[in-house]
Amino acid sequence: MSAIVNALIAGRHRRLLRGVLWGAILAALLGLGYGFVHWQVRSFIRHDQRAELARINSIRTGVVDALRMLQRDATAVPCSRDFLAQMRRVAFLPDGLNEFLYAPGGRIECSTSQPSFEPPVLLAAPDIATTTSNDPSWRVDRDLASIGLAGVIGTIAQLGNFAVAIPPYTRYENESPWLHKELVSRGADGKVWSVAGDRGLFESLEAEKHPSLGAGLTTLTSSICDPAGPYCVASRANLFDWAKDWLPILSSTILLAALFAWVCANNIADWLARYWSFEARFTRGLNAQSIVVAYQPLVDLKTDDIVGVEVLARWRDVDGTLVAPNRFIDIVARSGRTGEFTQLVVDRAYAELSEHIGRDTPLEVSFNVFAPDFDSTDLLKIFVKFLGEPQRFRAAVELVENHDIDFESAQCTIEALAAAGVRTFIDDFGTGYSSIERVARLAVHGVKLDRSFAMSPPDSVMGRMLVQVIEIIKTTGRLIIVEGVETLARLNVLRATGLVDYVQGYVISRPLDINELTALLARGNAAWSIRPAAA
Predict the structure, then answer these.
(1) Do 327 and 358 form a contact (C-beta atoms < 8 A)?
(2) Do 442 and 312 share a domain, yes or no?
(3) Alpha carbon distance 139, 106 (integer Å)
(4) How far is CA 265 from CA 6, 26, 156, 225, in A?
(5) pLDDT for the residue numbered 112
(6) Closest CA to 470 of 460, 482, 487
(7) Which residues form the EAL domain (predicted)?
(8) Which residues contact 275 (CB under 8 A, 6 or more apart)?
(9) Does 90 share its domain with 195?
(10) Of the residues 191, 220, 245, which one is the last residue of a structural domain?
């Protein structure tokens, strides 16, 4: 599962994803189509078998009715002229039966086509003997030459003294060539006689109790028997043979299915791209469990002690990777969840710091806040946990002026925060909207110089302006924090001015997790306290 999520997040192999989706959808459609065809063919087979049984039973019923009619109507002297006329009246009925026999005791004495047999023709024992006086006995697949029908094979049914020669059973002319079937008659002893169709199919299917998987997928078989009669029908259909009859329609259907699958695959791929886009993942996954915080130490240049930390937010993606704020800050702002986001960061920082940092280590904990959220009422609610422990923590806010602000409203907020013990700093001074005017007009506690000043080459314009900017800010009486300090040489330059109050940057430490911060505080000041040797 994680591998699939990673692939979706990475956004690579989009073409492969579309291909896989297309193949999966097409396979599903073909599977549904196969299931429909399977059901249709099986339904056709069942219907055909019932029709076949109905047809043969209709013939059987006609035979029984004709023999009973003879028993009722042929009352003249056997084999007399009147008797033969009575038999011929029954033979004239439109049921296809016209060769009736008078055969008392199984001895044929006369028939509708022959006035007498001298000597009488002896019939062999029946293949299917009668079980009641109302049912005929059957002699199956007999040579009818002895009754004057040379070269004809038929079935003789006998009821009482009368019998009838039944023509061979013929299949329908318009039967499907892909459907193989056999109609059989079964005796009471289980013996089977093939009536019509593919001889041996019934017994073959009876022997195939467990067809192979391949055969089961491509070949349909079925056997049904008439519960009220001796007849059974066995059928076998090969789906490949069936498909040949429907090849043009099947080809068009598969082509349409492929096009439909491609449209669906593209729509699903586009939806997945949106659903698994970074912005969508972040919006869904922004919660207390996904917020991770890091702490960058703030060092007092006068004492070289760590006196505070800036809390930096990270977000844990669904694949476990940590995402830097430059990727999601704009999303937070666009989504209108800035207050919620700040609350999550503050709560996580308080939970970690209160658990791991000793009560004898007071820290100023600084948070970046969004300018639209710069309201004392909301911020004091957000920082309520830190404000409850003034001996351990002092909260501070860093305001990034990325758009214009109302000075009067901002001043009221700064004063209200200060009254509650929260200090305010202007962050990233030297970029965006920040200016000396704002520093002078707002009663902020300090200014953080952007790293574009801190690490500019000494001979660059920004490098030459560094000391002058520090001096100008100092004239306003504000504290000065320089962030982004990465080398000990630049740290000593800032220290030499005597005007910089605090520094932070990689020369002190990279952003740390809570365990690393605890270990750093336990070690005390280190390399950053080294001063250049006196000349």
Answers:
(1) no
(2) yes
(3) 11
(4) 20, 9, 66, 48
(5) 92
(6) 482
(7) 275-525
(8) none
(9) no
(10) 245
- pLDDT for residue 167: 85
Alpha carbons 98 and 175: distance in angstroms, whole number? 27
Domain around 147? 74-166
- Determine the 3-state secondary structure of 1 from DSSP: coil
Q: Is residue 270 part of a domain?
A: no
Given 133, 166, 199, which residue is the final one in a domain? 166
Q: Are 337 and 286 in contact (CB under 8 A)?
A: yes
> What pLDDT is recorded for position 1?
44
What is the C-alpha to C-alpha distance for residues 319 and 324, in angstroms, rounded to an integer?
15
For a pLDDT cut of 90, what percent of the chain falls above it? 46
| Domain co-membership, 490 together with 504 | yes
Same domain assignment for residues 160 and 175:
no
Q: How far, in Å, CA of 33 to CA of 39, rounded?
A: 10
pLDDT of residue 148: 86
Tokens coding 334? 């666009």
400 and 368 Cβ atoms separated by less than 8 Å: yes
Sign of CA dihedral 9, 14, 20, 21: positive
**Residues 6+ positions from 188 with CB-CB distance below 8 Å:** 128, 129, 131
How far, in Å, CA of 266 to CA of 19, rounded?
9
Residue whose C-alpha is closest to residue 290's, from 303, 281, 279: 281
Same domain flag for 405 and 386: yes
Same domain, 230 and 320: no
What span, in angstroms and rounded, lies between the C-alpha atoms of 425 and 201? 94
185's enclosing H/E stretch is strand 179-186
What does the angle CA 306 – CA 346 – CA 326 come to, to the nearest 5 degrees?
A: 85
Report residue 245 as tokens.
Answer: 């009859």
pLDDT of residue 535: 43
Query: Other CB atoms closer than 10 Å to residue 33's CB: what's the count?
Result: 14
Instruction: Mark the ranges of the chain whose per-residue pLDDT is less than 70.
Output: 1-12, 131, 171-174, 209-215, 401-404, 430-435, 525-535
C-alpha distances out from residue 463 to 189, 428, 429, 470, Å = 113, 16, 15, 12
Q: How many CB atoms lie within 10 A of CB 105?
A: 9
Residue 195 near residue 169 (C-beta atoms within 8 A):
yes
Q: Same domain for 152 and 186?
A: no
List the structure tokens of 415: 């004063």
Within its chain, how far is the Cα of 40 from the centroid?
28
Residue type, position 442, single letter: L
Side chain identity at residue 302, one-letter code = K
Integer Cα distance of 363 and 333 in angstroms: 29
For residue 264, tell me if it sits in a domain: no
Query: In whole angstroms, how large is the CA radius of gyration of the chain?
Result: 50
Q: What are residue 236's DSSP bridge partners?
A: 180, 221
Report whether 179 contacts 235 (CB < 8 A): yes
pLDDT tens digit string along 270-316? 898 889 889 999 999 999 999 999 999 999 999 889 999 999 999 99
